[in-house]
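Reply to dn_fold:

You asked what the input looked like. This is it:
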Amino acid sequence: MLFLDRKAELGRLDALIRGPEGRLAVLYGRRRVGKTRLLLEWTERHRGLYTVADQSAPEVQRRYFAAAVAQVFSGFADVEYPDWAALLTRLAREARGTKWRGPLVIDELPYLALGSPELASVLQRWIDHDARQARLRVALAGSSQRMMQGLVLSSSSPLYGRAQALFEVRPLPATQLRHAFQGRSPVQMCELYAAWGGIPRYWELAREAAREAIDQIDRLALDPLGPLHAEPDRLLLEELPPAVELRPILDAIGLGAHRVTEIAGRIGRQATSLSRPLHRLQEMGLVRRETPFGESEGQSKRSLYKLDDSFVRLWFRVVAPHRARLTTSTEAQRLALLRGHWPGLVATAFEDLCRTLLTELGSKSALGRLGPWQAGRRWWQGNLPEWDLVSRAEAKERLLVGEVKWSAKPFDSKEIVRLAHGVAKKPLPLWHSSDGRCDVVRALFVSAAPQGQPRSVDGVHVVTAADLLA
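and this is what came back:
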């Protein structure tokens, strides 16, 4: 299985190993993001025990859990445990007697809690007393953020405030693509990101499927027999509780409805009824709320809702509207369909990369030396010219405004000069006039430029995909 990066996450988990008392970590994050792989790596490094729950009856779940624990404590599964309190008490007693400190991982905790609502309170007492006395290192994990909220994250939950490490496992940064897909050019890595985002499971499947992103997509998602052909439906079904009723909202956003009123109109619902469903899709990592730069994310009335996962965006653009057609299409026909949407999908993903990887620009680039920069956001207002990327420098009175242009082939010098001239002449956002202290920096972000291309044209910094992914 693919394991990349995660140094920060492993560092936070390793910190639990140090210290005289028992400690607790809580991890959560969307499905396929690599939580299990991270926890397996951690337990293997420290000779711990990884357990994972499934959707079964509590008696069966305890039997499976005891069988896993028997790998460490011989005979542990020979007893029938009437409840979780009895099982966990014996586990702590065995650990204390053998001086085994773990780590003990309980993955997919929401599955256990679904069948045993008392489990959160049982765990709270166990963590506070038995596990602490045994000096156990325990990690709890789950994919359902709603369930994890009720168990651990909410201030009203029994386990609230007891974790020494609590964090969300996020998708991998695009800079890790060069390790997963060695030998690819920066342009090819942008295409891979447009197909699979930062989800390690998709990277793993893609590595086994083909070399080129467009062929990977056909084999894994467009082909009705591909393992990802119905992936978004599975993601919704595997949620706790299942979120299949949210599918129409994803369809509407995927087809271009981004304002709440537009989404409501597409699916025949009142706009006021969409607040909770949209929030849940944000929790699941499938949708993001986008507000113009300079406006409060919580108060802006000009917010847009976008699909936040590259693969999900591709699926709802190419697969969902054409499921029947794809069933009877040949490979050549499927690829022709994909190519019709591909440039726009990659261009959107490249914009996302420019905004997120801006923070990683180091001192090797002139623009990086003017930072460090905050993550970029778009700016728009009515019929005024939009900006693809606006950012502030950290701890400096400096503002960056930029345009993003994508092409699978390198832009020639004349085209870059023309585009840079447009950026140099483009009117600044309206609110800039009231912020006269800011030094304004203009930039043009392009997928690739000719060798030897000057990195400043008309006072506009020219940044390529290679600069961002270095």
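The CA atoms of residues 397 and 438 lie 5 Å apart.
Hope that clears it up.
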